[in-house]
Amino acid sequence: MGEKLIIHHWDTDGICSASILLKNLNGETKTVIPKIGNYFLTDEEIDRYLEYGEIYIVDIALPEDNIKQLAEHARVTIFDHHMQEPIENINHINPIAYGAAQEDFPSATWVLKEYFNEDEGLLVILGIVGDNEHKIKDNRRFYDIVQRFCRNYSIDFDDLVKATYLIDSNYKLGKKEDVERLPLIIRDMNLEDILTNREWNKNLEILEKEIGKIVNDKNLGEKRGNVIVVDVDIPYNIISTVTRRIAWNTNRDVVVVNRGFFEDRDQIYVRSSRINLTNLIDEVKRLGCNAGGKKSVVGIITSKKKTDEVIDRIVEFLEGKRW
Ligand SMILES: [Mn+2]
Q: Who is most buried in 107, 120, 139, 321, counting CB within 10 A?
């Protein structure tokens, strides 16, 4: 007992947030992620984590019953900016759960920056750029912050975006252990180190090829009313990137299904710039899915036998039908 554990999201924001937290904690701290693609912990994982006295959950909205199980044995603290109900009896540092606007917390790194009074350093900025990419330009306050950082360090905005792609290449190729080592490693890296990392650049080449194949395949998307539904079967975890690219290319609401990442379940990802998806999360949870997200994006994991039903419901939701 007494040892510390950080459970963090596998993307750039999650890694950089864990890294900032690591810097602010004393003593030995282990960093782990759930099985990539799982927005929950398995019973096996929970069993393994029962030995820790202090657990931090960073940039990932795990199900409430997971958190309560952990809290029976450990002091649990959450740092997050995803939508979640406030959770009692744990240290829940998530301004969004308490009513703050999503625009004011574009990354979990920003939540940690505020909490620990950190500078607007590379890790904080990478979290913001990782979660928002070029869309951060629509957020006046934070685009100013990012631009100021770029000016101060003579950095190109596009290089920041590239750096987040390189970091994210690890989880997209399913390299769980590499991701878990990153919070410790990235602390000592500057932007140049990230941009010139050989292995990550190789990762990115592989991924770009796969993503390009899907995004540029005009025959893949099926139009259902105003919604584009794309159905793929691939072993990579690139569903959020693919959804984002298609949405930005087409300016439409997009639903992407990947039937190839998990053996036993399917991934669904939804992105809308017109409709608040908050209620969709609860609706698909009621259908028995695992789901989480923000106002504009929702990630869903469903059993294979329910996939088609869930897609139908999502399309209905996006078309304005409520149940
Ligand atoms: Mn985030």
A: 107
Angstrom distance (rounded) from CA 46 to CA 66: 8
Domains of the chain in sequence order: 4-195 (3.90.1640.30), 217-318 (3.10.310.40)
Residue 323: pLDDT above 70? no
Separation of 242 CA from ligand 1 center, angstroms? Answer: 17
Question: What separation in Å is there between the alpha carbon of 245 and the centre of ligand 1?
Answer: 18
Q: How far apart are CA 276 and CA 43, in angstroms?
A: 32
Pairing of strands 290-293, 227-232: unpaired
- The total of other beta-carbon atoms located within 10 Å of residue 170's CB is 24
Cα(79) to ligand 1 centroid in Å equals 10
Per-residue model confidence as pLDDT tens digits over 168-207: 999 999 999 999 999 999 999 999 999 999 999 999 999 9
Give 153 Cα–ligand 1 centroid separation in angstroms: 24
pTM for this structure? 0.87
Distance 18 CA to ligand 1 centre (A): 11
Rg (CA), the chain: 19
pLDDT 10s digits, 53-105: 999 999 999 999 999 999 999 999 999 999 889 998 899 999 999 999 999 99
* Tokens at 93, concatenated: 């540092």
Nearest to 280 by CA among 226, 289, 100: 289
Cα separation, 287 vs 280, whole angstroms: 11
Residues 148, 293: Cα–Cα separation, whole Å: 29
Q: How many other β-carbons are positioned within 10 Å of the β-carbon of residue 158?
A: 10
DSSP line for 217-283: -TTTEEEETTEEEEEE--SS--HHHHHHHHHHHH-SEEEEEESSSSSSEEEEEEE-SSS--HHHHHH
Cβ–Cβ under 8 Å, residues 178 and 15 = no
Gap from CA of 11 to ligand 1 centroid (Å): 8
Q: Which residue reads 């070029």 in tokens?
A: 134
Q: By the 8 A CB rule, do 45 and 62 touch?
A: no
